[in-house]
């Protein structure tokens, strides 16, 4: 192009990223390194920005055997910290497990005996117990101990490992901050659970699984949340566990102390 016979430089053209590519790039910002699930392709991730509050991406192991879950709920709860929940492309790291519920525990659903809703709690260890709370939230519990005992562990919080776009869509939030998964109802929603998943075996491939993962370096303990109806000794029992040093923990945090 010329003006008065003098050549004029052509301005550079910049190619805009497509919305789909931008969404893919956001998913890769969670952590660096390579994560590979058994039978699934590797996911390469770019380093996260300094402002993003994330945990290091753990290696994904195999599904835990049934025997892993067949222990007292109070023993299973801290052992679940750092393990991974997988359903379809979504993988979550368990950062706050929670709360253990045991036989003769006035806060446990099993205190009323076997009902249509609580029957999975009395089933074999390693199955899911999913119930609807306040008509809104799907709460995921891991059944503990042997069949007939009536014990479980509530999963309170997680951090994302893969499937961020699906997590955000299910949660209806386009954030990458801990508010996305810090709370038991949020975990159930992120996994797309319904009560139909209750009694599902968590140690078999496909569906909903609990996979092995690295043990945390530190653990916090404190009293359980929202059980004011229970007896005083059960309200005060330090049966809530969380990984130390992670922001992916639900409120209240000030009741947690190093184990």
TrEMBL record:
The keyword DNA repair applies. This is DNA-3-methyladenine glycosylase II. Hydrolysis of the deoxyribose N-glycosidic bond to excise 3-methyladenine, and 7-methylguanine from the damaged DNA polymer formed by alkylation lesions. Residues 13-29 have a biased composition (Basic residues). The keyword Metal-binding does not apply. It catalyses: Hydrolysis of alkylated DNA, releasing 3-methyladenine, 3-methylguanine, 7-methylguanine and 7-methyladenine. InterPro entries: Formyl_transferase-like_C_sf (IPR011034), MPG (IPR003180), MPG_sf (IPR036995). Belongs to the DNA glycosylase MPG family. PANTHER family: DNA-3-METHYLADENINE GLYCOSYLASE. Gene3D superfamilies: Methylpurine-DNA glycosylase (MPG). GO terms for biological process: DNA repair. One of its GO terms (molecular function) is alkylbase DNA N-glycosylase activity. Keywords: DNA damage, DNA repair, Hydrolase. Its EC number is 3.2.2.21. Residues 1-51 are annotated as: Disordered.
């Amino acid at each position: 192009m010329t003006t008065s016979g003098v050549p004029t430089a052509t301005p550079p053209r910049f190619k805009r990223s497509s919305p789909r590519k931008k969404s893919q790039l956001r998913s890769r910002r969670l952590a660096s390194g390579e994560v590979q699930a058994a039978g699934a392709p590797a996911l390469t991730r770019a380093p996260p920005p300094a402002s993003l509050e994330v945990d290091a991406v753990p290696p994904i192991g195999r599904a835990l055997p049934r025997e892993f879950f067949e222990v007292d709920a109070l023993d299973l709860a801290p052992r679940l910290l750092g393990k991974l929940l997988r359903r379809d492309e979504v993988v979550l790291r368990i950062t706050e497990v929670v709360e253990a519920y045991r036989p003769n525990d006035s806060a446990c659903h099993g205190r009323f005996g076997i009902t249509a809703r609580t029957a999975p709690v009395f089933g074999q260890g390693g199955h899911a117990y999913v119930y609807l709370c306040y008509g809104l939230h799907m709460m995921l519990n891991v059944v503990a101990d042997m069949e007939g005992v009536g014990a479980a562990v509530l999963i309170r919080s997680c951090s994302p490992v893969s499937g961020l776009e699906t997590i955000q869509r299910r949660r209806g939030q386009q954030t990458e901050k801990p508010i996305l998964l810090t709370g038991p109802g949020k975990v159930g929603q992120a996994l797309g659970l319904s009560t139909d998943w209750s009694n599902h075996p968590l140690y078999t491939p496909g569906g909903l699984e609990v996979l092995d993962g690295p043990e945390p370096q530190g653990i916090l303990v404190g009293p359980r949340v929202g059980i004011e109806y229970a007896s005083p000794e059960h309200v005060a029992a330090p049966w809530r566990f969380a990984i130390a040093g992670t922001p992916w923990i639900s409120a209240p945090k000030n009741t947690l102390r190093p184990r």
